[in-house]
Specification:
Layout: E1 7-11, E2 16-20, E3 24-29, E4 37-39, E5 50-55, E6 60-65, E7 72-78, E8 81-88, E9 92-93, E10 99-100, E11 104-114, E12 117-123, H1 126-129, E13 133-138, E14 141-146, E15 153-158, H2 162-166, E16 171-172, E17 177-182, H3 192-211, H4 220-232, E18 264-265, H5 266-278, H6 282-295, E19 306-307, E20 318-319, E21 333-334, H7 345-360, H8 365-385, H9 404-423, H10 430-447, E22 449-450, E23 455-456, H11 483-496, E24 497-498, E25 501-502, E26 517-518, H12 519-531, H13 535-546, E27 558-559, E28 566-567, H14 573-593
Antiparallel strand pairs: 1-2, 2-3, 3-4, 3-5, 5-12, 6-7, 7-8, 8-11, 9-10, 11-17, 12-16, 13-14, 14-15, 15-17, 18-19, 20-21, 22-23, 24-25, 26-27, 27-28
Length: 600
């Protein structure tokens, strides 16, 4: 059975694939992240489709990433010999302006000892396995097509005998072999030498990218793996960032909180790109900002909370009833109706990104004017909407409420807008924006504070606590020693923490009471403890969280409190973003005080 603890991810900033420890491709969509699947065993063991390399004899298997890359290496040792398998999607510079991100998946086999017997299980199931897929030999390639209905196809190139592939017959691995699954028919010659050249080019791309990443004394390995994962989730054509590479992995086994995360949430993306900028990958942040300006924000246009990776607005949600779901957790969904929701926190996150762009990146006068127009549009929107209820950061699908975090992020939007007005000497906006900022703050302090709880609460008039309130100091709403925030941190820990892991909230929502730990919230708790001066406890919480990663250092969205089994879409950009932020914070503390949580 497929398990997130056993999965690695490969990709090329266009699409991605998940590879099991046994060498199975259990999830891959071509040509793009959000395209219909070619292999989807992840969400249906029988109907989803798989591409597997299967030793004929019992094998001892080891798997790892090639250091500082997104190339996955799997080593097999059998009684008859040993071989290694390299999995990657090609990405490298063609010239100063162009990158090769072909929608294709390479699997390279190289014998190390003897002549081990190997079987290829090539079972593409196009369009989420909705109809039968036919695979036939066509001269130099195998072609798979849907047998009826909407047309889908992929091509397979290999130097393994076609009959061995089609009939799934074992063959002796006597020399290097390649297996290429491509969305397009190849025009150039494909051979084993060229396949291994693609491997070297792709390795070089990732190594060069990592070489530009900041170096830290502590947790460098974890920071780099998380940064590589975040970069992999970036769509190179536009700069959009997807929340995760999968759809419909439930938050808890049997849960119906199964959503499609292969889209660009403005909040997640802006936070991720702020973090990549801090790691010295500022071009990625600038490209995303360009994506926003070019495809999303227009005068008097309505800002959505999420878009497709190409900037499309309509993402209608539908179910795929023929698929059994991850570990039988139905339904399997594609699309995401959250695009219709109103979430006021998005304005604060976006304005913070624009402020960062002005402060850290030189821009031309036309680009600055375009950004300033966007700033004034957001400020008008915040002024018109901050008093209204919304769905909140957790995308509640029932009635809207006055969520405290949304109000605070509206304050952030005005605060950053005011900073930009001062920076750009637009003095005429300062008085009204200053008054608006103060009005929002007073509203939060009056209605968002619960004296009985000794904490800011999830929404106005509520006694429920919410882990998002751990971010109030980080976004600048209060200082680390502010009595109300310190009290909130302690209240959140007391009410939402379980064995050192955090619920995002515990009150009943649209689908019942949450039952899993939300990983990003657990990282937020480590941050908050550090900021209120409890550094040793913060380090201990962080170390425990690191132990919850899967064997390749990857995180999903959720975690079972008791078994520590990973759940939720995978790998989750938000979780890896939080890991980096906490690791950088702990490094900063070490530089200031010499306090060390562990040896590098």
């Amino acid at each position: 059975m497929v398990d997130l603890s056993q999965l690695g991810i490969i990709g090329n900033c266009r699409s991605a694939a998940l590879i099991s420890r046994a060498g199975e491709v259990v999830w891959a969509c071509l040509p793009d992240f959000d395209s219909p699947s070619v292999f989807a065993k992840l969400v249906d063991e029988e109907k989803g489709g798989v591409l597997a390399v299967v030793p004929e004899e019992p094998a001892r298997i080891e798997q790892e990433y090639l250091e500082n890359t997104n190339v996955l290496r799997t080593h097999f040792r059998t009684p008859s010999g040993a071989f290694e398998l390299f999995d990657f999607m090609p990405i490298y510079a063609v010239d100063a302006q162009t990158y090769n991100r072909a929608p294709e998946l390479y699997r390279l086999l190289r014998p190390l000892e003897g002549k081990p017997l190997v079987r290829i299980r090539y079972r593409p199931r196009l369009n989420y396995g909705a109809v039968e897929t036919r695979t036939d030999a066509h001269g130099e390639y195998l072609k798979s097509v849907t047998a009826r209905g909407e047309y889908h196809s992929v091509y397979c190139y290999t130097n393994i005998p076609f009959t061995a592939v089609l009939e799934e017959r074992p063959f002796p691995l006597a020399g290097p072999s390649y297996f290429l699954v491509s969305f397009h028919q190849k025009l150039g010659r494909v051979d084993v030498g060229g396949a291994f050249t693609e491997l070297e080019r792709t390795k070089t791309y990732w190594l060069n990218w990592v070489s530009r990443t900041s170096i830290y004394a502590l947790y460098q390995k974890e920071i780099v793996r998380s940064a590589l994962t975040l970069k992999l989730l970036t769509y190179g054509k536009t700069g959009a960032v997807i929340a995760a590479a999968t759809t419909s992995i439930p938050e808890y086994p049997g849960d119906s909180r199964n959503w499609d995360y292969r889209y660009c949430w403005i909040r997640d993306s802006a936070m991720i790109l702020q973090t990549l900028r801090e790691l010295r990958h500022g071009n990625t942040a600038r490209q995303f900002l360009r994506f926003l300006l070019d495809t999303i924000i227009r005068k008097a246009d309505t800002l959505q909370i999420l878009y497709s990776i190409r900037g499309e607005k309509d993402l209608p949600e539908r179910r795929l009833p023929h698929l059994a779901g991850y570990k039988k957790s139905k339904p399997v969904r594609v699309g995401n109706d959250a695009y219709r929701q109103k979430q006021n926190d998005v304005y604060g996150v976006l304005m913070d990104l624009i402020h960062t762009s002005f402060v850290h990146f030189p821009t031309s006068l036309p680009e600055s004017e375009e950004l300033w127009t966007t700033v004034r549009y957001i400020m008008r929107t915040v002024e018109d909407n901050w008093r209204k209820p919304d769905r909140g950061v957790w995308e509640m699908r029932t009635r809207p409420r006055h969520f405290v975090f949304s109000k605070v992020l509206s304050w952030v939007a005005v605060d950053r807008g005011l900073a930009l007005a001062n920076l750009l000497e637009r003095d005429e906006f300062v008085p009204s924006w200053s008054a608006l900022r103060e009005e929002i703050r007073n509203d939060v302090e009056t209605h968002g504070w619960n004296e009985a709880k000794g904490a800011y609460t999830q929404s106005y008039g509520s006694g429920d606590l919410d882990a998002s309130l751990l971010l109030l100091e980080r976004v600048g709403f209060c200082t680390a020693d502010a009595p109300r925030w310190v009290s909130t941190v302690r209240a959140v820990e007391a009410e939402l923490s379980r064995d050192g892991l955090l619920y995002r909230y515990r009150n009943k929502d649209d689908y019942g009471v949450p039952r899993s730990a939300f990983l990003i919230c657990s990282f937020w708790m480590a941050d908050a403890l550090y900021r209120i001066g409890e550094r040793e406890r913060a380090g201990a919480v962080f170390e425990r969280l690191l132990s919850c990663a899967n064997r390749l250092g990857l995180f999903s969205e959720d975690l079972d409190f008791e078994t520590h089994e990973l759940y939720g879409n995978f790998p989750q950009g938000y979780s890896h973003l939080a890991l980096i932020n906490t690791a950088v914070l702990l490094n900063e503390g070490r530089q200031r005080s010499g306090f060390i949580y562990r040896t590098p």
